[in-house]
Every structure is written in structure tokens, then in C-alpha cells.
């Protein structure tokens, strides 16, 4: 599994969260708070991602 | 061709080339007379898969009585060995000498105009529902096992006996929805469609074979929706079958008589009930074929969230796969009964014969083509094409990619990803979309919400909102693309450069994507764009993404209303800054392209 934990930010309500995500196998994202799909995967900070 | 597997598929509608591995059967089916002498002498006995393991078969065997061809097959994994021959008894007794231990798999190539996928389904394994005791109690069986036990051709020749003492049970319970309609992490959330009526049929069989038998069905809802189904259900009730509305929470075994004790809340009476039954049948659900990934990959098929193959359009093209020239029938598409499978298979055959008889296919004029002089042979277009419709370029030979027009569906993902603008989408050219953006933002750009909407879902969602008379701001402006995958980065940047306060990209939900997985590229591109805006110190939240299906008129109107407020929150200074930065960015990109072109010349 190429899943790693990444930071996500909802551009609609501002909610920030971490979730497992596989960059190669893109899946639909929905903000857990406002259900918007404008959820940005935040750029990785060096050494921040954990498997 | 039986006992065969598809190894590879290349080509496109009308010109598929399929390689099939015809597996060695070690028995010549043309010569075999199915006399059974070989099986009679074979010393190996293994559980019979067809009889659900209730009886055994030999290493040389007939898979089931009606098997086609009517010939024996050798299971080499269980055979006592042919290298060197350690047993060889079957070959000795075969008068026609049709057993060949040296038989080899054969690769066969066939040309096909169309392909029909009818690979069926698997059944759900109820082991994880440990409270029903399927693996712990002898007298708990599945509905598939019930079929074998009640069948005249089954291991007990139709004598329905319980495994613990081989006696005919006097009371039998059925638990419905095992592995179906479950949202607690076990099983599947969908309804398996066939189990209710299968149980009704089973209870009638029991009543017919064993008058006086006590049958009880534990259910959530009985779904008798098809032609004649309600009559059958009522007949079952009239025969005395007791239907209890409630799914047992626990099953235990009476140590002495091996009867099963069920605890259930009867939701009709609101009372907790205890039922002691001699046998229990778990009405197991249906799942997608577990070995179906190979076919999915070979034919670039996509699946819905439940894992069954997605049709091209649920109403207008229910047996067409998104890949042209590929049709689907039966449970590979969704759980269904025999009648529906036959109906769908007939439709698929008819659809296929239309294409075969015509001998040609009409391609909608929205496909892509390559401007070879602009191509830098990077090959991204071939990588992103969901249909494998692009033959990759060859950098060394300076050969540009070739687009197979018959296979291209016109999603535009290739054109959006091509950094050289070397791919042109007919009727959705860059210039045409840019002209729409410019027209929308020509007057009072700061008041308008520019929205890219895909043809199939989001644009239709807008239509749905309109026909439902849902109110949404009149300042919304839609640009239709076939797929959100067509929305090029430069369209978004150009809109900001012309003063758009907000841009919305909308498309189909991933499970509904009409172009297999082109929406994946939309998502990836949006991530790139958000990072880019951030880097240029432009608020990334001015670019939004929403997946809106054709049925989600409400969501469409809600998103439009919410974004109207966001549009108002963008200040004039912010927009002026954005326009200045974007003008610089567009110039920088243009210069880079000119330099690359000059270098190529
Ligand atoms: Zn949110």
C-alpha cells in the first residue's frame, strides 16, 4: 500500500485534518465538516509524512 | 472455449486482438465418451467444489453433470503426478486413449469486433458474521449449500438432511441479508437483489418436499418486486412459512441435540424472542467477482463504489461499457436474477450485432488530434488517456503520438495535460474555451462566478436545479466541457488574469465519471493549481472544486449560493493584484513556450 498520512485543508470552511491518502490511487475528497469537495492536499513539509 | 482465460486485449472497437490461454485439460474432449472408467479407478479423492464440499470427486472428473463439453478433465494439482508418471491408472483403463499427461496450455489469438463481458459474480462468505456460527456449528449452512442439499443431482440425491446427524430437520430457519445492506463495516451496503426471492423459493421447495416442515424466515424487509414475485411470497405464507421481522443478534448451539437457538428482536411486536431450530440457512449476499481485476484492466472498465462494472449510461446505455465496442451482461454489472441476466444478455447481443452488421462505427466529432509540429514527445497524453486510445510517441524517432479516433471518447484530459498545447479537442479547442472566458469576463468581471461544468453531471445538475425551480444567483456563468478533465490550468489562470473573483471547476463524482477515471486528473490538476496560486500569493480558496451529479440540483444551487457570498468577499485590490500577477505569469509561460519552440527549430 502506498498510503501515507497527509495534511488536508477545506477551502470552503477552513477545516484542517490529517488523513491516509494514496497519491497514485486518487480518491474523492469530501470535507468532514461542510461536505465541500474543495479539499486541498497541503504540500508536504520535509519529513512530515508518515507511513 | 471452456477452461480458458483471457490473457491480453489490444486494439479498439472493430479491431480487438484477444489472446486467450486455453488451459491444458489432459483429456481429449473430442475422443472422451464420458464413460467414467478413469474416475472409477482414480485413487485420489478431493472435496467436490460443485457440491460445496458435501461430497468428493476424483482427480480426474466431470465438473458437473451438465458440463459442456461432456468430457472429463484432469486436475493436475491433485493428480498423483505425471512427471515421472507415478500412478497412470486412468490412462491404463481409458480404452480410447484420450488421456495425455503431457498436454500443455495453448495461447490462441483471435480477432474480435466487439467484446461482451459476462463474467458473473461471487457469493459472500459469511464467516465474519461469527454470531451466526457458520464455522462453529454443523447445522448452519449457506443458501448455496442449501441448493446442493435439496437438489436431486446433489450429494444426498435431494434428501434434505442436516449435517450433524443426517436426519431430515423438522424446523429450518433462514436469516436474510447476510453480508447485504450492512453499514457496520462487515459485508456490503448494497442489496443483493436475489436473496429474498431465493429464500421464498427455498421455503416452497421445503414445503413441497416435506409437508409439515416448520420454516421461519428472519428478515429486515422482504423485497418481492418482480413479476409474479408477490404471488410467490404470498403462497409461501399460505403454506405456513412464518416470517419474523427481525435479524437474530445471536445464535448458539444446544450441545445435546445440536439444535440452534436464535435470539431475535421481533420488530413487529417489539418483543425479544427465542427460536430453537434444527437447521439454519444463511441467505448470503452477492459480491463482485474476486478475480475480476484482470478483465477490468484489460478492457479499461471502471466500477461503481460497490465494485460492479459501471455502465456507460444507466438509462440510455445500460449494457454498453464506457469503452467503445465492449458490452456487459449479467451479474458483472450488478446482482440480478436469471430473467434479468437473460434480458441484459439479449440486449448486449443485440447491441453487439448492430455494430457487427454495420461494419463501421460513427465517431462523435469531439475527439482529439495532435499538432505534430508542437509535440515534444513527452508522452503524458498517452499516460493520461483513460481509454488507451493514444499510441505513445517515440522521442528517438521523433514520432508524435497517434490518436485512435475510434477509441477516443473526447474527455480532453490529454489536451489539458499537454504543456505544449499540441493536442486539439474538436469543438472544445483552447481558443473556443478561452473566447468563452473572455466573453464572460468582458463586462464587470468582479461580479461573475465563472464555472466550468462537465457535460454529463454538473451541467445536467444545473439543468436539474433549473427545472426544479431552485433559486441560484444570476451572476453564475457556466462553460460546458465534456469532462472536468478538459479544464486546462491555463483556462483557470486566464480567468484570474481577466479579473474573475472566483473560479469553480465542477464534474462528476468519481463513481459516476463518464470517462472511466478522467476526474482523477482533474483532482491532481487542482492540487497543482492550488499550490501555484499559493506560491503566487493568491488565495487558493478563490479556486473551488465540487463534484455535482446530474441528480444533485440541490447541491448545484447550494454551491452557487455559497460561492456568491465568496465572490463578494474578494476585494478590488485583491483582484487588481491577481490580474497583475497573472499577466506576468502568462507572459512567463508564453516566453518559456517560445524558447522551447525556437530550440526545437
Ligand atoms: Zn469544509
Average pLDDT taken over every residue of chain B: 93
Q: Mind telling me the C-alpha Rg of chain A?
A: 11 Å
- Shape estimate of chain A: globular
Number of strands of chain B: 27
Oligomer: heterodimer
Number of helices of chain B: 15
Q: N-to-C terminal Cα separation of chain B, in Å?
A: 55 Å
The share of residues in extended strands of chain B comes to 15-25%
Q: Let me know the largest β-sheet of chain A.
A: 3 strands, antiparallel
* Fraction of residues in helix of chain A: under 10%
Helix count from the secondary structure assignment of chain A = 0
Order of the strands making up the biggest sheet of chain A: 2-1-3
- Radius of gyration of chain B over all CA atoms, rounded: 31 Å
Would you kindly provide a written description of the structure presented here, covering whatever features stand out?
The complex is a heterodimer of chains A (51) and B (601). Chain A has one domain (3-41). Chain A is 0% helix and 31% strand. Chain A has strands at 4-10, 16-21, 39-41. In chain A, strands 2-1-3 form a three-stranded antiparallel beta sheet, with no helix packed on it. The radius of gyration of chain B is 31 Å and the shape is globular. With 601 residues, chain B is an alpha/beta fold. In chain B, the strands form ten sheets. Chain B has a five-stranded parallel beta sheet with strand order 10-17-11-12-13. Chain B has 15 helices and 27 strands. Chain B has five domains: 1-18 and 111-121 and 291-361, FAD/NAD(P)-binding domain (3-Layer(bba) Sandwich), CATH 3.50.50; 24-104, Alpha-Beta Plaits, CATH 3.30.70; 125-287, FAD/NAD(P)-binding domain (3-Layer(bba) Sandwich); 363-427, Alpha-Beta Plaits, CATH 3.30.70.20; 428-601, no CATH class. At the A-B interface, loops of A face helix 13 and strand 27 of B. Bound molecules: zinc ion.
